[in-house]
Amino acid sequence: MTIAPLCPTPIMQHETVQMAHGAGGRLSQALMQRVFMPHLHNAFLDLLDDQAKLDLPPGRVAFTTDSYVVSPVFFPGGNIGELAVNGTVNDLAVGGARPLYLSAGFVLEEGFSLAELETIVKSMADAARKAGVMVVTGDTKVVGKGQCDKIFINTSGIGVIREGVNLSCRNLASGDTIILSGTVGDHGMAIMTSREGLSFQSRITSDCAALNAMIAAVLDVVPAVHAMRDPTRGGVAATLNELAVSSGVGIEINEMTVPVKADVRGACELLGVDPLHVANEGKLVVAVAAADAATVLEVMRSFAEGRDAVIIGSVVDLHPGMVVMRTAFGSSRIIDLPLGEQLPRIC
Amino acid sequence: MKYIDEYRDPKLARKLLDEIRRTATRHWTIMEICGGQTHSIMRNGIDQLLPDTIELVHGPGCPVCVTPLESIERALLIAARKEVIFTSFGDMLRVPGSSKDLFMVRSEGGDVRILFSPLDALQIARDNPAKEVVFFAVGFETTAPANAMAVWQAAREGIENFSVLVSQVMVPPAMRAILSSPGNRVQGFLAAGHVCAVMGYEEYEPVAREFQVPIVPTGFEPVDLLAGILKTVELLEEGRAEVVNRYGRVVSREGNRVAQELIDKVFEVTDRQWRGIGLIPGSGLALREVFDRFDAEKKFNVSHISATESPLCMSGSILQGTLKPDGCPAFARECTPEHPLGATMVSSEGACAAYYNYHRNFAL
Fold first, then answer.
1. Which pick of A226, A255, B162, B252 has the fewest CB atoms within 10 Å?
2. Cβ A197–B113 below 8 Å, yes or no?
3. What is the pLDDT of residues B208-243, one digit of tens each?
4. What is the count of structural domains for chain A?
5. B116 vs A329: CB contact, 8 Å cut-off?
6. A190 and A308: one domain?
7. ipTM for the predicted complex
8. Yes or no, beta carbons of A319 and B48 under 8 Å apart
9. Across the interface, which of A199, A327, A332 has its CB nearest the CB of B120?
10. Nearest C-alpha neighbor of A58 from the set A167, A158, A162, A131
């Protein structure tokens, strides 16, 4: 004989996250069944085991992790959910891997809106579908009001690196061409200008996007690309500096060639921020032998994410470990790493 | 972008550079007053493009740099108080006091917030009546009107939980101090465009006459700066100690009268300490007595706090144009933006930071 529970507690009685949602009991299950599974479900997740059991295609495995704490969680052009999927997909893809599986860990603040949580989960599912990856395992914890800011998400990802590709920040060689996939600073400025306390309105939207399809197409044609990076925190300036330092080479870029949208430029002027220091979430920096540059550029431009791709500079023998910009006036200046806190919690 | 691109036009810049080269028949030392101008010069490499005859030295016009150590110490004490929301322009948070900076106070639990306008601080005060909201009112004549407006509105609306920690300074007394100093090398000035937008340039005319120096109100974009330098060189070559405006799209002779009246209603002239330079008589602004209750120094009883500067830092000489940043033995060695010895390395407008960011010893 089974006894039906006398007092079932339907989840939708609550409009916000309760401590009990993370306690492993009935509410935890309800949260799983009503909010997470309808959107993220797949053959692995549906088993509800403590782990996903995966068969990987042959090749070296790439493994990465990133935590997302962006504020605000909803920003023009996206939300923390798609950011968490695309960011980890991109971290795998720039290593030459085909992204396959993700994990998702959620830390929820007591009182966070369940409707907003569902919107975020749905965006994650959409982003995963678009990028061709599956969320195969996950976890949810709830912390007391004020102990986190609405929602933090950690995603880890694994992918398999294709044969014959060796992308590394240590591979840059003198004479290489540096290609940038499009305009800089969109994500960081979208966040910055949507913050409370910044009393100006703008139409700047985040560039948050998965880059794995474009990267795969580039590597199909030119497997000998030397390095790829997605210039997130610290912007293009930080990425170029990392490449220059890791490879022990100098990089020279041309100020006139770096694309910046007019309203991003305007916001940067107003706030006194260098667009090269501002975060991107859907951009790619590629270092490739000069002879292959035109081919790579052509492939990138055939994708929406790379429509505005341009050559911004080259690798030089001079000033190893340093990035130098030729200004529009023919003078030069150092492009340094941004110092300290510029835009807190952008991703 | 309109009003920016035409002032960053490389062709126009080259034309102005050619004219400067043609006009200068001997060596001239010109000081740009404002830290914003210093940064634009270094960022665009204008110093590399000028002929050897023109030497630019960098002035004291960086509010973060000249805010005295004792004001920083007072800010740190106030910001650490439980009932206080301490608000400031971002740059001030990194300025080290004798043992910590405002970022450290924040990490220890102080409510320290970065704002872009003092009027936002006033809004925070309206929204948080149980808290004391303090704004760190630093800066030259450029920030004075908005700071005055915040106090004026607070008084009008009776917002008693708002106050300002004032460290306002003014340009002309600093120019007089530089020109009067025995080691002075400055022969002409680029006056700070934004300061002049508020104050006009009438008040520079007596300085030009008295010290026989040309003064040229100048903007911040490369073409603005080169036009300002060219005019200064022309005046120097012709021996004319005059004030000639080269920032006409923003600056008028009388300035912004409404802003000046507001400053005058809220503030009065006072003596003020300049970090690295010392006391300059009549160089500062303080709240008038009727606004006493908005004076954070008095409200939190920190007026007695004093502090002494590290003897290693040579920022006083930097700020007066007698030493260039890369002439300081500590530059880019003991003193870097991560570990600044003095304020000129901290502020985004500081001359040492500009040299470090854009030009520290690289082979070209």
1. B252
2. yes
3. 999 999 999 999 999 999 999 999 999 999 999 999
4. 2
5. no
6. yes
7. 0.81
8. no
9. A199
10. A162
